[in-house]
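Case study.
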Amino acid sequence: MNFALPAALWALPAAALPLAIHLLSRRAARRQTFSDLTLLASIDARSRPRSRLRELLLLAARTLLILALILAAAGPVARGSSSAAGAEGLDLVLLLDASYSMRAHDGGRTRFDAARDAGRRLLKRLAPADRVAFGVFDEKLASPLAWSTPAAAADALMRAAVGLRGTDAAAALTAARDLLARSPRGRRRAAVVLGDGAAHMLRDAAPPPADGAAVLGLRFPDLPNAWLAGAEPARGADAREPKLSVRASASGAPARETLDVWVGDRRAASSSLEVPKDGEARSTLPLPPPEDPRAPLWAGRVAARPDALPDDDETFFSMRLRPAPRVLVLHSGPAFDRPGASSWYLRQLFGGGERTLAGREADFLAEGRWEEADLARYGTVVLSDAGRLPPGLSSALERFAAGGGGVWVIPGGRTSAEDLADLSAWLPARFGAGDAAPSPGLRVVRDGPETSDWGQFALSRVAFGRRFRLEPAPQATTWLADSGGAPLLVAGPVGRGRAVVWGAPLDADWSNLGLKPVFVSWAEACLSLTLPASASESPKPARVGDALVRTWRADEAAPDRVSVRGSDGRRVTVEVRARRAVLPAAEKPGLYEFDEGGGARTIFAVNLDSTHGESDLTELSSPPWTPVSADELEQTFFSEVYGKDRRGWFLSLAALMLGLEMILSLPMAAMPLPRSAARAKTLAVFLFLLACAPMASAQQGDRFVWAQLQLGAGWDPYPDAPARILAWLAEVTSARVAPERRVLRLDDPALFSSPFAYLAGDEAPPELAEADLRRLRQYLAGGGTLWIEDSTGGPPGTFDAWTRRTLAALLPDAPLKPLPTDHVLYHAFFLLRGPSGRVERGALEGAAWGGRAAVIYSRDDVLGAWARDALGHPLKACVPGGEAQRELARRLSLNVLMYTMTGSYKADAVHQAAILEKLRGAAIP
Amino acid sequence: MRWLDSEDQARLKGLGFSPKRPHAQGAVGRHRTLARGFSRDFTSHRPYAAGDEARAIDWKAYARLDRYYVREYRAEDRVTLMVLLDASASMTFRGGGRESKLDVARRAAAGLAWIALAQGDEAGLAAVGGAAKADLRPRGGAGQLAAFDDSLSAVSAGAEADLAAALESSAERLPRRAAVVVISDLMGDPARVLKALRRLSVGRRELMVLRVLDPEEREFPYEGSLRIEGLEGGTLMLDAAEAAPAYREAFARQEEAYRGALRRAAVPYAVASTDAAWTSAVSRLLAA
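After joint prediction, the assembly is written out as follows.
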């Protein structure tokens, strides 16, 4: 608590004035002679304790009154910034968050607009002497902070626009702190962060604020949001089977996303995806075949339903899938197709057809004819039983591998290490001496996607009759070993390509691997190890703000310039320097197409950076600023910086004390305490009743309430009919009715405060739970009457079936039976000859329970006869009887109500004599 | 005449008092008695009996009825009026420049004495609670009024605080048959005062009570905090605004207690206020 005028506090001793006056007045009591003190003494003795208390209270009230007035005069201010007293002006750092999360729509406008308006309102109220440093930040501060006038800052604020990057408020806060720390002493300091206050605003801990500076930040309520986190080639996708994997995330609430993949302006695929709250879900969508089979390139976007933040419900992708590489199997001779031979296994595996087991197409060729093959057409060359190679093949394979191809070497059964020396020279593993009695069994040395699910195989059963000791090169990786730990499968790079060496012959004579279930997985692993890590050559996905760089390899022909078509369709030309074309910054998400001439093109997909949770709009749990909503920013800011004026408190305290003083100063006789206590009691009772008013409104008094069960979709076919019936009931009978019906669910306890419940339906409502049936049974047993009506007016449908089924379960002992025409219901008020309704579908049915029809079931759509349109005309015609039938239906509905209220009263013979007597007496000619 | 001037005499003219109970006393006075005797007031006829005076025979009745009837007249007697003047300290209270209660009481006493003497009765004075003995034996006659006046002047207020005790002790100084007028402010415990008054009225005494009050005693018109000193001793600090309503209520209750108790005992009672004419209070008393 600070005071604007501390000098006024010197007047505080004046608060002792009442005490002094009191003491002085005691001393200065007037002397008065009186005749006799007997009476006075008795009065004085009686009133002394009360008057003493009153005196004390009066004294306290007066002292507090003066105290409060003095404090109010001193201008009390609560919790201003510490350098509040005598400040020269205000230094305010205003930081505006321009990240894309500020584009979120919150109550009809974007958060950015709300934040900007709040900032503008704040700046308007600043004095010209105040200084403002305005800065826009997203991932970093857009420009260094510098002091300016409030008006200039307001201009800059209104010029600011929201961007598409992520947020990191820490840098901006640090800059603000440094600037404020340098501001001269004696000035008030404050920083306001006009951000969305979401959890993503701070990636690291925020710097502590400058000394004595008030730091405020906007806060917005949590907003559920779902977004697309990215789209990339699905695992296992290749040019023949292009697939896209889309990741979607949601925060705040689970979301059901509908994904549409657009390639060009064509919708390629759609799918829907359930995204759990605060989690991620993936969906794999097929892509159409490429436009140009020679350049298998896909670029497009995936769009989801726009929600609170529409910008992140769209993601762009660009990917290049390699065609599945062909495999060339070089075998040693004519016996390659002998069952049990190494090549035979591979033949079985690849098959040579379109959709082979390993997903590759393979050609088989004898080693001696290797020169006939165009190695450049193949992705992988397999030496199925390598031995002494024809001249030139080894070096050709080395060149092939160095140029990016894959080589897979399986030694032959009769081969020696010397035969393989040529290969050992460049393969990732040297073939050492043969081992005639190796340890059986396989062991996975290195875990990778290739060996991910090998746990299901009985690897210890794999046995070898012979194998070579492999000596892995330094940069090679051992994937498999035998149970003794000697390497069996070694893979490693050779130039730009890769080579895989298997250490044992595959022939059935030497190994049972080809007969084991693990064989297929083994072969796939070996094949995939000969390929580059990814089957796709997609350009690296870029984020908004990144530079897009297209680099040409040395063996590619680089153009002089490329024409870049941006996401907005505009083209710019970029010079190629040092085999690099650089687009400095992609400011918008979208596809950026580098047209390299001659039909070659590279497409970059630029997306919003949601990796830091920018799309997650949940609130920051403990922000390093005082969170305040946009509407309250102005008020809170001024109370934080200048403090809150507490003068009103003290003035109201003074007023209170004044009132107390006045009451206490009244003569004693004016305070008849017992009576005022009684009055207070009355008042308290009144207040209690007032508080109970909502409860009381639920009470119905002695009025008849039309309770209608809300069950199923068609529970209310004629919303106006009950009110009309009740109005007529009140008109023609002496029953007091509540004008409004009461709509209830079965679990509503108010069900039990009305003896009558109505249930209509046209289709079967959901089956009643046992608890509901029990309640309903309790209701009927307690005297309630349930009127069920099939409002279709047609032949028995699902509702009819439901009713009969439910009633059988509800009242097993009381089957529905048509009510006889002499049933008292037909005499309860009007004398009716039988059932009637809007249609004629049959008798009124009833389930007898305790001597009355506890459940009445009609299929004549009685309420339909009551329904009227807005002009008051009957909504539906009554068939076949017309208006006369309508009148009968109206009467019947009244009879039903009277029956629920009076039961069998009209049938009781005990009244008849009295009634006849009365009638005779009343029979005046 | 110090305590009775001619104006007051004029106001009191026409007033008289008569005891309600019969006296059988030797001296023939003006007061009617139920005992038949000699006076001009006719009571009734009675058939003549042997021994009746012949001059009592109503000859006109004999002429009409041919029988002797005797006329009977009411006897008349003389009454002693004893004024019991309260001279306790509280009687000296004077509020707002008015006469003190004691002075008003003296005037009333003089007035009553004058009335009694003027109708041929005897008047005497007894002061209670006073310092000096200024008692005057009851006597009739023209000179008695002057003696009464002197006695009143001789009465001086004392410091006596207990009125009830003083009243009781004065009982034996009173003649056995007399009309006793107590002139007092009746300040004190009403129960004890009433008990003392009952003692005064034993025997063949007839009691009348004239209460003398100052308006300030009735209304307590003070304000502010007061340091109250009682004339009969004691000091009290209190807030007038606070005490006044309760005091008024208590005073009214006391007054009602006196009035009710005395009415039930058929004792005439009147209140004289120092701010009003005492003569009217005396006339109320005598008319009661």
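Observations recorded in class. The two ends of chain A are 94 Å apart (CA to CA). Residues 669-675, 692-699 of chain A have pLDDT under 50 and may be disordered. We will return to this complex in the next lecture.
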